[in-house]
């Protein structure tokens, strides 16, 4: 697993992750923790579906992640991050493992299930803007929650988790923005699945919203192994674009994604900084596009999926009809968002 070393060092805005970069033997973990293995059997192998595109433009294919056990692409990351923590924890009793992570929502949902099923104490730092449906699920699963004032932006959510990990070292911070298990699992699961599903067809562009950048960069690395010419397009909220020098803000943004503010860049994306083109989409536009996609297809997609679809259509419109644009639909949206849209 020299790959793990090849993604170090990061041009990191945060202090380094404390987790080991040892290769993780997932089969051994499945044997030792059957609930972890059961989750793995329901994970991934999601469809790559053709979705509406511009007349005369490229075909758009979307990796639709809502079919994962907890309904989002972050189920993969929860599995990978917890795997790295379980590996590091070794033979000690699981009651001694106390997992801490910050989340925009989907990762906490997935981790809370995995931790509840394994008997691991979980604690999440979230924005006070988190939807009630998420907070109720976390409470039902016995997870602890620390809320950070939404006006301070997501960067303060991350910093609060880092401070907690420093002040209370009995908590193991999973650290999705720096933990290489995130990026590598996307490379070897999401990305490898897409390469196989393309079945030899050459992708011209890969479009993905950036939260940690694990999806964008992990899949990019898998695609580039087979198709070195593929373009990479990262999508971030217009309210706080990638690398923005503006301070963090409390404006509503599409799900799970965003620039950090203060000029900080997501470490995984900095690994390929000169190769990634950046687009932005506002949250109000995402809500309109969710409704539009639902009207066209009868299928619900989340707000980051809407941002990705809109951007993929823009790219597809500039390419010939023989070309292929690949994107990802990370989830199907929250009940609160669909209520807001009125459907
Ligand atoms: C709905 C949604 N879309 C997109 C993302 C971004 O994924 P990544 O962290 O791989 O960049 C997330 C991450 O939490 C998410 O929850």
From TrEMBL:
Keyword presence, Ribosomal protein: no
Protein name (record): Cysteine synthase A
Domain Tryptophan synthase beta chain-like PALP: 43-331
Keyword terms, alphabetized: Pyridoxal phosphate
Domain of life: Bacteria
Pfam families hit by this protein: PALP (PF00291)
Cofactor: pyridoxal 5'-phosphate
Gene3D superfamilies: 3.40.50.1100
Keyword ATP-binding: no
